[in-house]
Amino acid sequence: MYVCLCEGVTDGQIREAIYEGCCSYRDVRQTLGVASQCGKCACLAKQVVRETLSDVQNSQSALAYPATFVAA
């Protein structure tokens, strides 16, 4: 789905930018130019960034298994 019509940025592109290292809305905005023209897409773009960062954080915490050792 297109998030920013002015720059032609989709939600997939925003997610991909986060997967490739963007860590904030500011990073995404600088990388993709989202919300740099009319600004009407800023709320939706921020929502996509928040949801994606949350998903990334949750998936990383699910992978981190605490090591437990049992004395033999």
TrEMBL record:
Q: What is this protein called?
A: Bacterioferritin-associated ferredoxin
Membership in a protein family: Belongs to the Bfd family.
Q: Does the keyword Iron apply?
A: yes
The protein's required cofactors: [2Fe-2S] cluster
Q: Where is the signal peptide?
A: none
Arranged from A to Z, the UniProt key words for this protein are: 2Fe-2S, Electron transport, Iron, Iron-sulfur, Metal-binding, Transport
Q: Give all residue intervals belonging to the BFD-like [2Fe-2S]-binding domain.
A: 2-49
Q: Which InterPro entries match?
A: BFD-associated_ferredoxin, BFD-like_2Fe2S-bd_dom, BFD-like_2Fe2S-bd_dom_sf
Q: Does the keyword Cell membrane apply?
A: no
A Pfam family annotated for this chain is Fer2_BFD
Q: Which organism is it from?
A: Pseudomonas cuatrocienegasensis
Superkingdom of source = Bacteria
